[in-house]
Amino acid sequence: MAAQRRAVRAKTPAARSTACCMRPCAAATTSSSLKAIVLPIRPAASRAFCSSNHRPADGHLLTLSALYGRHKSWEPFAAKRGNIDAPSQRDIARYGLDGAWKRKLVYREQADQSYSLKYRYTPEEQPLLDLTVLLTHAQTKQDDTRPENAATSFAGSFGNQSHTSYRDTGLEISNRSRFDTGSLKHNLLVGMQTNRHVRDVWMLDKSKLRNAAYNYGRYQPYYMPAGRQQQNSLYLQDEIRIGKWTLTPALRYDHIRNQGRGNCASAYQSPDPAVGHDYRSKTLPRLVALFGITWQPADSAPLFANVSRSRARRLSTNNTKCSFSQSSAPATSRQLEFEKLTSVRVGGVLNWKNLLAERDSLQLRATLFHMKGKDEIFKSRGIFCRAQWQKRPKGRQ
Fold first, then answer.
1. Phi and psi dihedrals of 171, rounded to 5?
2. What residues pair up with 54 in beta bridges, in sequence order?
3. Cα–Cα dist 48/70, whole Å
4. Is the Cβ–Cβ distance between 256 and 229 less than 8 Å?
5. Predicted local distance difference test score (pLDDT) of residue 357
6. How far apart are CA 72 and CA 3, in angstroms?
7. How many CB atoms lie within 10 A of CB 318?
8. Which of 76, 144, 177, 213 is the most buried (most CB within 10 A)?
9. Rounded CA gap, 263 and 278, in Å?
10. Lowest-confidence range among 112-126, 249-263, 303-317?
């Protein structure tokens, strides 16, 4: 565990203010120095990584990797935010400088761990077999706690206390084959992939401790509900080389099932069908296609172009975000489809070796690209265009 010493200055972006234990400095004794308060930061953090390779026989390779990280500190709730105003003189007089600053922060405990086991089989003199099996697991836990003297108006930012957990478990099996068909040289990649994502979230909202409709303050944030997503995929890619040209068609099919988890607060899980709080599972297919061309007139100057049609991956929470039952638009968003993206890229690479000295190299890369999106997902502000109105939720509008 390594202790770090940093500084946070009032009126600076939060990207530079990852706060921890804060103590008043000598410059913070008068109100005129509030804009120049500097507080020492000592976050408690540790990180470990290990990787091991083992070759039990010729052509066999096992790779095991593990990563662990832990972080504890007082810091702003949001990593992306504007400036943090210094506490007022009134708050400093009431809570002390340390307490006044901490009322603006959360004490965050975060733990990350990920593991992967990779097996590769590449037998000699068998160009049709290059097998890879990859098993992965990753988990993140985060607990935020605001001080006891903090306000109770934090329902929109995970309340006065919260717990968030993410788990991803995946398996991928692929094989690469190299073969010729007449004058065409093929590099064929075929694979399958499965991934399970689970999200668990709850918060303590002190402003609702006496409200039974909000489970007495303990419920899932309506803007980040819990749930799980199962994705199963098949993909195919073939690099076909013809002289100085390489054609690369590729295709991927995803079968995605989103499953929401009902909220323990009845305000966000009304039994009235007209409200539209629907956390049932929803299955969506997705097809991604790509075609690329590469021309290499010289070894040092490849030129490339590709076009792709894809649909953005969506987490299960986009379907189950909702509002409280008495709002004007309370329903979950089961009508949402994938965001669609068409992308075109054209570019080239120039390579030089031994340009200024022996064994040096210089590379120049240029790319032009054009992307066009459709069916973008964003928060509704109460006004629907004609296309959105046709696909609107069934709850009250």
1. -135, 135
2. 62
3. 9
4. yes
5. 86
6. 11
7. 15
8. 144
9. 10
10. 303-317
